[in-house]
Design a protein that fits this description.
single chain, mainly beta, 1 helix
């Protein structure tokens, strides 16, 4: 398959506070290097890799801030955004 689209539910627990947060949304993947995560319970929150850059837009936490980072390059600068997300 070259593309995948799925819904998800993610549960994160902060070990320091014991607080638990549940997020739901949609994940879309397109080979070789594009993906998007859109969150349902935090309207507008998303993480996108467009093949060139990783974009993080979380207006529910930091309104107006957009983070942009190269999604590939030398070993020191490259990231495995999908691997990091799924871990």
């Amino acid at each position: 398959a070259r593309t995948v689209r799925a819904t998800f539910e993610q549960t994160l627990t902060n070990p320091a506070t014991g607080n638990t947060n549940v997020a739901t949304g949609e994940l879309a993947l397109a080979k070789p290097n594009r993906f998007a995560v859109r969150f349902n319970n935090a309207a507008g929150d998303r993480v996108i890799v467009d093949g060139e850059h990783l974009w993080v837009y979380i207006p529910s936490a930091v309104p107006g801030q957009v983070l942009k980072q190269p999604a590939r390059g030398n070993a020191a600068a490259s990231i495995d955004a999908l691997g990091d997300l799924l871990t």
